[in-house]
């Protein structure tokens, strides 16, 4: 099937982390540009210069945006109405991408420099502030997504070119019962950002391949969506349905919309403001 990409914003400096807030605004980061930006439904763009290397984004409660910063080694919180910005974790190994579960736990990947050694890990920050490692021994853990029911966590292990999946217990904060991984062999590097559709399928930005791979819940690739550039970094669904699947692409520095693809599974979010970790 042929899918058409519509250019939303161009001229970006390694865009990443697309995310929609409650007002229907589309957010993204620029890793090299050291900024996060917000595009309102009418197309107006606000830019927040925050420094560091902002990567994955997640919506928090009310007026909050959570940001993985690989250069500073922390997860940061931005309050857009005031511009206030602070870290909610101590220094970790280059946080990359993040997602909330149904209980308000924040799950995020820390690949560090694990391209050639399995030193990457995945953390969980509980609503009360407790921080734990839920998976380790990974080659560049990257994108994170949860199934619509919150009972499965998907993690892109970029430098083994595969997607790991496993049962997630939001109460004990344990990731267990992992079946064989989804294999993604296309691309110079491998799978990057992830998104789950309302059809239950997993949409995978495969960096270096010029495509978004689509897997059914059992791990069979059922479709491939071509992107204009070779380096799609991440993807997210517009909950309002207007923009469909939004993709950040780094080779051409673009934010793209595939409007005909549909809607995603509603993302989870915290029930209260995120508490800083005491670790």
Structure description:
This protein is mostly beta strands. It has strands spanning 6-9, 15-20, 26-30, 35-39, 45-49, 54-59, 65-69, 74-79, 84-87, 98-100, 106-110, 120-125, 131-138, 141-146, 152-157, 162-169, 174-176, 182-183, 190-196, 202-207, 211-215, 221-226, 232-237, 245-249, 254-258. It has one domain: Neuraminidase (6 Propeller), CATH 2.120.10. It contains no helices and 25 strands. It starts with 5 loop residues before the first strand and ends in a 21-residue tail after the last strand.
State the shape: globular
- CATH homologous group name: TolB, C-terminal domain
Uncertain segments are none
Q: Rounded to an integer, what's the Rg over CA atoms?
A: 17 Å
Question: Helices and strands, in N-to-C order?
Answer: EEEEEEEEEEEEEEEEEEEEEEEEE
How much of the polypeptide forms β-strand, as a percent range?
over 45%
Counting structural domains, the number is 1
**How many helical elements?**
0
How confident is the prediction overall: mean pLDDT? 93
Strand tally: 25
Secondary structure class reads mainly beta
CATH class: Mainly Beta
Distance between the termini: 49 Å
Tell me the major beta sheet.
5 strands, antiparallel
Helix content estimate: under 10%
CATH second-level architecture: 6 Propeller
Query: Which fold does the CATH topology refer to?
Result: Neuraminidase
């Amino acid at each position: 099937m042929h899918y058409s990409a519509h250019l939303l914003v161009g001229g970006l400096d390694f865009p990443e982390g697309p995310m929609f807030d409650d007002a229907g605004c589309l957010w993204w980061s620029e890793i090299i540009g050291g900024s996060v930006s917000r595009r309102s439904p009418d197309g107006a763009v606000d830019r927040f210069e925050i420094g560091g290397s902002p990567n994955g984004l997640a919506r928090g409660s009310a007026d909050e945006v959570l940001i993985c910063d690989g250069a500073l080694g922390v997860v940061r919180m931005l309050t857009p109405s005031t511009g206030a910005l602070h870290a909610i974790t101590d220094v970790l190994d280059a946080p990359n991408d993040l997602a909330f579960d149904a209980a308000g736990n924040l799950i995020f990947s820390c690949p560090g420099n694990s391209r050639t050694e399995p030193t990457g890990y995945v953390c969980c920050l509980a609503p009360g502030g407790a921080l734990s490692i839920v998976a380790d021994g990974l080659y560049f853990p990257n994108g994170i997504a949860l199934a619509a029911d919150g009972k499965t966590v998907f993690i892109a292990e970029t430098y083994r070119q595969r997607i790991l999946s496993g049962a997630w217990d939001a109460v004990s904060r344990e990731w267990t019962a992992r079946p064989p991984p989804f294999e993604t062999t296309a691309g110079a590097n491998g799978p990057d950002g992830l998104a789950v559709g309302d059809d239950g399928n997993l949409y995978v930005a495969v960096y270096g391949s010029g495509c978004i791979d689509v897997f059914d819940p059992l791990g069979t690739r059922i479709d491939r969506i071509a992107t204009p550039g070779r380096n799609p970094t991440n993807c997210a669904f517009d909950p309002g349905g207007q923009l469909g699947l939004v993709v950040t692409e780094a080779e051409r520095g673009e934010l793209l919309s595939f409007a005909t693809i549909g809607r995603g599974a509603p993302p989870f979010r915290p029930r209260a403001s995120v508490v800083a970790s005491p670790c």
